[in-house]
Amino acid sequence: MDLLSAICAVTSLHLRREPPELSSWIQTAEQSIWMNLESPTVPRLQTLLLSIYYWVESGRFQRAFMLTALAARFAAAMRLNYERPDLDSTAREVRRRIVWSLKIIERYFSVGLPEFELCPIEAIYINFPKSEDEFESSRPREQSAYKLYTRLEGIRRDIMKLGRGLHPLDQPLSSLVELIRHHENILSEFSAELPYGSRITSAQVASLLDNPWLPRLLAMHVSWHQANCDLYRILVPGYPDAAPSVVLDAVDPARLLFAEEQCLKHAANAIQILTTLNQESASRHMLEFDTAICAYHASRLVLYISRFGKSPNRPTPEFAASRAELCVVALKRFFPSCVPVAPIIKELESSVVVFLQRHNHDHDTWGASSSTAGRPPQANTNLSHEQQTVSPAAETQRLAIHSLLRQAEFSDAEDDHPLPTRAQSAAEPSQGFPTPPSNAPTSAPPVIDNSLNTLDTSIIPASSASGVGSQLPSNDPGITGANNSWWGQNMPLAMGPVPDVFEDGVYPFLSWTGRQDWEWLLESPR
């Protein structure tokens, strides 16, 4: 009954219905956990996992995070991380899927931070899940998509740990290229097992529209491209997730250029998968949250490489912006009411606007965008030393906008009075930021054209050399004459007020407010 209540609650969320029983369903499910806290069982753990999922989808990230720790304790106490040969095949498969589902939930809070790793892969001694095809053959083939996806989880986690481990370095690492090559080989060998090869075509995506396993199959392919992006972005100078400049300065420039090209290729492929699905499918598929995360990172890479890349084949700013806009359109369609995805959509929208404003501003200032292309962003010299300097610990702990741990906004206060959330901070000045003087300008943040929010994917062809940039002014009043404003004195690249979502990225109460996802947008090339 408790498990059934949890299933009903989660199903109601996906159906976007709120029956009168909804609150009682989740209360019944969660109450059974607390009443039997000392007696974990597989059904209770399944109930707990569904409850966690419910709270994530409801935006209660703090509660979901704490319950995830409890679920990890349940699994460890029941020793689900070990195989049980004495059980039948179905029971063993249930145990495997519980553990790997817990591992996937864990990644949505943080990846590569040992203090938040609740179920270390090194302590998992069970096999990966089996293919659905081994349990039933009457439906379209699943082709081991879930098994391959969980394997990619471990690969991506190792790559993230490598990237985080490089941030504190203050001298070259002679073994860096060798480490990169090691992961390259792993990904190359893995690609041979992908059902549709290393690149699933638009025609193949279209052929899967009636396959009930489509979300898994696409998530698997997008995840593989993301793993490659995670790896090669380490070698993209100036990128927020790249190795420090002192490390990259010792790497062969040809190797850096190759990494940039690989980032662009895999990011473009990931975007193509999502946009093809949006264009070809008449149904709104229930996609995995990780698909939105991958689309976000792919869009960022395309925008960054367009602005600072060194490859002669890098995309034009207009084309890069159009790719990001297509992702936004697809995310709005497939995640219309998904609370965890909302910040991703908001930041991508704001990023495109600021990206094109900066492009137009640079074009007007220096005459031609090509004169500054191929150079990584330059640190803003108007910032104080404290603002420019980020401790290695803070840089290592930086979390992306999609991290549920970052969105949870946990307080480090020593009393019972909660610190204000971002929504509350928007209504009143925060003690952690300088407050604008009473005579400071109150111009509105950049406005996102409503037409962009309802963009028809058919109006931006793949070969487009001009797109949404034409809808933005090249001489933005927020850029010119802003040097004497409060924003010009306190924000990078005096270009007027920064969109609200960017203010969210420097929330003062967290320890992981190092260099943020969007900061390069506000920097100028050297």
UniProtKB/TrEMBL annotation:
Xylanolytic transcriptional activator regulatory domain location: 30-145
Top-level taxon of the source organism: Eukaryota
Chain spans, region Disordered: 364-394, 412-450
Record's subcellular location: Nucleus
Gene Ontology MF term list: DNA binding; DNA-binding transcription factor activity, RNA polymerase II-specific; zinc ion binding
InterPro entries for this protein: TF_fung, XnlR_reg_dom
Record GO biological process: DNA-templated transcription
Manganese recorded as keyword: no
Compositional bias of kind Polar residues: 367-391
Keywords recorded for this protein, A-Z: Metal-binding, Nucleus, Transcription, Transcription regulation
Keyword Metal-binding: yes
GO cellular component: nucleus
Matches recorded under PANTHER family: ZN(II)2CYS6 TRANSCRIPTION FACTOR (EUROFUNG), ZN(II)2CYS6 TRANSCRIPTION FACTOR (EUROFUNG)-RELATED
Name recorded for this polypeptide: Xylanolytic transcriptional activator regulatory domain-containing protein
Taxonomic lineage from the root: Eukaryota, Fungi, Dikarya, Ascomycota, Pezizomycotina
